[in-house]
Amino acid sequence: MAVQGGTASERVLADRARYVARGVAASPVVVARAEGARIWDVDGRGYVDFAGGIGCQNTGHNFPAAVAAVHEQVDRYLHQCFMVAAYEPYVDVCRRLAELSPCTGAEQRSVLVNSGAEAVENAVKIARSATGRPAVVVFDYAFHGRTLLTMTMTSKVVPYKQGFGPFAPEVYRVPAPYPYRGVSTDAALEALHHLFKADVDPAAVACVVLEAVQGEGGFIPMPADYLKELRAVCSEHGIVYVDDEVQSGIGRTGPVWAVEHAGVEPDLVVSGKSLGGGLPLAGVTGNAAIVDAVPPGGLGGTFGGNPVACAAALAVLDEVATSAFRARADAVGARVRARLEEIAARVPEVGEVRGLGSMLALELVSDPATKAPAADLVKRVAALALERGLLLVTCGLYGNVIRILVPILAEDADVDEGLDILEASLVAGSAGAS
Ligand code: PLP
To answer: How far apart are CA 81 and CA 5, in angstroms?
Structure first.
């Protein structure tokens, strides 16, 4: 029974505590509506949104072209199951993904699914089927999802893995470059070669799965020289190079795919999050010679490539492929980065400003000399920002990174207001720390 009295938010949150599983992380914000980079709660309070539902709103909340496409599709049909009756929006999304694909091969094909984790699972299935090999190589600081295979591939014990074992077999982990914490391109490559000597025969490796910019792990861009070498290692050993762009793709860093910054062609690219403009849609796209190794019936799912989600995705893909969107992403990236650099000059706890394009973050440390992670400060800053009207999300293996996923189509005034709040919260939070 609903709780009486209190604010509308309090009533919903009381029911939430009563009925929603404790394992689903809790936010104190209860949304009533959203537009662009702004959301309003059920009590009428407005927020600037630097989270975008964790990177799902590169084109902004209620992107008008996507909303219009959804309305049109809703009146035709909501669901078919593509394996039962084919429909154009699914085929059209695959065609657009082929046109925009960064992958090797003249012909590109896609499978559409419901979530990033499901897409990563399918990329591994495809790679195993194409190579006949079992092993999967992943990296420190990786995040690939919460299903059995993808949580195994993920590199953070609490909260993603603790108590959830046993894990999937044949997953091997190596360090990825993280210059701020002393892992250079050379060191990471050496570790990969060591893995092939010490732990797994490269001839048994089906795929390497890497985010072009590690997201959940701390917004760590992979250096271009590392990606080029990784590409060469994969080609040498017949390993499928899977580029997980669930968070870094769909224009987040400027080009449609972050890997394009490095001029490197993966074999498969995994998309999700902003692809559906807010509706659940993800995909695996890549070289037809690899994707088509799986026989008919081997890929799919009841809701994968839902027509309403595909209608939204077509509008999103049309937008993020334009030069105007690219220019906007570059401008937002430059604007945010300049402000973050200014903030870093004022707040000694900012250990590093980093990212690629408009996928930017601050890593906070309690002491710049030791680089000890300042997770408590990050929590405090996020709470202070929320009180001041800014929704922030954090990340990092140690929870000490503030990530900025402001919609790229946000108004400058909203971006600036959010940055003002971020700065005020950081200054207040770090003062409270001493
Ligand atoms: N891969 C990356 C790089 C992600 O950032 C995420 C989600 O944050 C996933 C995969 C999993 O996506 P989903 O939460 O849609 O399953």
So the answer is: 44
C-beta separation of 110 from 97 below 8 A:
yes
CATH superfamily of the 8-62+326-433 domain:
Aspartate Aminotransferase, domain 1 (3.90.1150.10)
187-240 pLDDT per residue, tens? 999 999 999 999 999 999 999 999 999 999 999 999 999 999 999 999 999 999
120 phi/psi in degrees, rounded to 5: -60, -45
* 216 touches ligand 1 (CB under 6 Å): yes
Q: How many angstroms separate the alpha carbon of residue 382 from the centre of ligand 1?
A: 22
Q: Indicate if ligand 1 lies below 6 Å from the C-beta of 215.
A: yes
Q: What is the dihedral of CA 414, 415, 418, 419, to 10 degrees?
A: -150
Residue 434 has pLDDT above 60, yes or no: no
CA of 116 to the centre of ligand 1 (A): 5
Atom number, ligand 1, closest to the C-alpha of residue 116 = 12
Average pLDDT over residues 85-90: 98
d(CA 125, CA 299): 9
From the CB of 243, is ligand 1 less than 6 Å away? no
**Each residue's pLDDT tens digit, 311-360:** 999 999 999 999 999 999 999 999 999 999 999 999 999 999 999 999 99
d(CA 239, CA 97) in angstroms, rounded, equals 23
Does residue 422 surpass a pLDDT of 50?
yes
pLDDT(1) > 70: no
Locate CATH 3.90.1150.10 in the chain.
Answer: 8-62+326-433
Share above pLDDT 70 across residues of the chain, in percent, rounded to a whole number: 99
CA of 335 to the centre of ligand 1 (A): 26
Instruction: Give this prediction's pTM.
Output: 0.97
Question: Could you tell me if the CB of 143 is within 6 A of ligand 1?
Answer: yes
C-alpha 48 to ligand 1 mean position (Å)? 23
Backbone angles phi, psi at 254, to 5 degrees: 125, -80
Q: Given ligand 1 and candidates 144, 250, 270, which is best to mutate, with the most ligand atoms within 8 Å of its CB?
A: 144
Class for domain 77-320, per CATH? alpha beta
Ligand 1 centroid distance, CA of 334 (Å): 26
Contact 206, 127 (CB under 8 A): yes
Lowest mean pLDDT among 4-8, 219-223, 381-385, 392-396: 4-8
